[in-house]
Amino acid sequence: MKSLVLERKDELALRDFPEIDHIEERIGPRDVRVKLHTVGICGSDVHYYTHGRIGPFVVNAPMILGHEASGTVIEVGDQVQTLAVGDRVCMEPGIPDPNSKATRLGMYNVDPAVRFWATPPVHGILRPVCVHPEAFTFKLPDNVSFAEAAMVEPLAVGVHASTKARVRPGDIGVVLGAGPIGLVTALSALASGCAQVYVTDLADKKLEIAGSLSPAITPVNISTENVGERVKRDTEGWGADLVFEATGSPRAAAQVFESLAPGGCVVMIGGQSDPIQYDAGAAMVREARVENIFRYAYVFPRCVAMLASGGIDVKPLITNTFEFEDSVHAFEVAATAPPAEVKMQILLPQ
Description:
The chain has 350 residues and is of the alpha/beta class. It contains twelve helices and 20 strands. Strands 3, 7, 8, 11, 12, 19 and 20 form a seven-stranded mixed beta sheet that branches. A six-stranded parallel beta sheet has the order 15-14-13-16-17-18, with helices on both faces. A three-stranded antiparallel beta sheet has the order 2-1-6, with no helix packed on it. The longest helix has 14 residues, at 152-165.
């Protein structure tokens, strides 16, 4: 069974991986076996490829990449009740310890024992088949495609961010960064009640896509315009109620309060590999609330429901698709960060 394997930093191979075949030879009573259909390429996958690590998570041995996935159930454990062979599904990639304190408090995403696909030493799912717990596998409505379903994982980040922000109807939001996470955050903020969302970036093509998603999204190219000045001009000097930092750039993170209104909320989404500057004075005089998110918790069913209802449309974000045999090339392209690409996906053989 061929898998896309990160052998080490800067080296990928599409090859047989007997270790995973042995690990998943049998399924547990509450597990399902899924034939993968579509897998998205995430920025974290690319970062492991180009850097060999993300913070404390280091690739010390060959690892299968991929964690944004959809597919079809082909086998079920004898105690599975909610899924059946033939069901089309998407999977939440993090499996926590059900007995941990974090899980019992409803914060399983920050459980130190969570096993998350394609996070060393846990293997990902750029492979034909995987075994996964029923509890973290979600049936798809007929009108949600495999491609859309593979977008549920990044969408979950945006929905979790909007939930933490406590969006109120009519709020004005700013999203820093028009990559996949920034755009799903903008869509989530609008679906949660924002009246208008400003989206910033340096790439005109990404901003063009952002502007096409909704008339309530205002693209701002920060190479030619200061978003703080623009927002204050449009709000009679008051500022935005919410600012979402989705770039992972220290420079952007240092400026999160510039657009923020008094009493507003900043949500830190983009991962930072090193300590960053934080303007405590700017936060203080605004009595700003600052939230941090790590992945998501209890939002996959909400995301699936919003895709099914049309409340959120992620199809415009899928800008390129590759066949599984071209996976190495797909990552080589993704590593160049093409300005016209948002979400690239890989189709598994059926």
